[in-house]
Amino acid sequence: MDLNYDDPKVKQAMEIYQLLTAIGKFTAKLAKKNAENFGLSLQQLSILNTLLAFPESTQQELAERLVLSKSTISVGIDKLVNMGLIERKLSTEDRREVKLQLTLKGEELAKKSSKNAIPYQAMIYAIEKMPEEDIQSLLRIQQELLNHLNEYGY
Question: Which of 25, 46, 51, 105 sits in a 20 to 30 Å window from 77, CA-based?
Answer without folding.
Answer: 25
